[in-house]
């Protein structure tokens, strides 16, 4: 059987992609776009049978890209989020889209806990004060996390692990997910947002969840931690709630626009921890990600069911054309 044409979209040099995908051997013919723009993506798609997605969301399989890829049989996204891909267009073309669920759950949940502790114990303000020559033993007013009510929005692998970690420190934990559950820990979204001392956001971005969390509805003095996507939280309302003192603080790993623009008001607020979308990036999670991607690509070429399909298409991959790949 001829090699599969694999188009790799991650923002890595071609030699690095070849090294990462080396275990696939001569079963694939690897290509990358000539440049990181839509024109180059569309030019490369007619030959593509498998697309390895771009975790930055710069190059995406929207409806136009799907239409430009008549041979496409499988899209593997090397992340949990599938932002920008047109799931309906891929499904209509019979192309399964898979993500890598769970590979970053440990890393992201640890970040959420660490960020909450940094806010609650005023670690950033304490560090800045000491560096400036002050010694504010009385004025910072940090709080213990134990006993605080923590609400987790999203209950996939990351949300479940967040709940475990916060419970381990003695927090009273509830959660909300789009599918109601007969579980004492499940709570109505409005009650969770308005009644929690800490709100942790780890739900996927979709049309249904965009603007889901309005920080102005949160409890006075509460903390907001967002490691999902910027669009899940109303960012303008968040800046307002922080500026007015309604919120005690926020920790953000994600933003509406990334990188965060120079003039964004969040940059000037003292009670917010800003992180460059790296909550899930550790050597350990990267290793799990590479393994998951390679396993799925191998399964696709073997005719076995792939894991993590998110658009309702059969997880068994079939080639659409059997003739030799386009040179």
UniProtKB/TrEMBL annotation:
Q: Which GO terms describe its molecular function?
A: glyoxylate reductase (NADPH) activity; hydroxypyruvate reductase [NAD(P)H] activity; NAD binding
- Which PROSITE patterns has this protein been placed in? D_2_HYDROXYACID_DH_3
Name the keywords, alphabetized. NAD, Oxidoreductase
SUPFAM superfamilies tied to this protein = Formate/glycerate dehydrogenase catalytic domain-like, NAD(P)-binding Rossmann-fold domains
The segment(s) forming the D-isomer specific 2-hydroxyacid dehydrogenase catalytic domain are 26-311
Source organism, top-level taxon: Bacteria
Note the InterPro entries from the entry. D-isomer_2-hydroxyacid_DH, D-isomer_2_OHA_DH_cat_dom, D-isomer_DH_CS, D-isomer_DH_NAD-bd, NAD(P)-bd_dom_sf
Gene3D superfamilies recorded: NAD(P)-binding Rossmann-like Domain (3.40.50.720)
Q: Which residues form the D-isomer specific 2-hydroxyacid dehydrogenase NAD-binding domain?
A: 114-279
Which cellular components does GO assign to this protein?
cytosol
Similarity comment text for this entry: Belongs to the D-isomer specific 2-hydroxyacid dehydrogenase family.
Mind telling me which PANTHER family this protein's record contains? 2-HYDROXYACID DEHYDROGENASE YGL185C-RELATED (PTHR10996:SF178), 2-HYDROXYACID DEHYDROGENASE-RELATED (PTHR10996)
**Stated name of the protein:** 3-phosphoglycerate dehydrogenase
Q: Which organism is it from?
A: [Actinomadura] parvosata subsp. kistnae
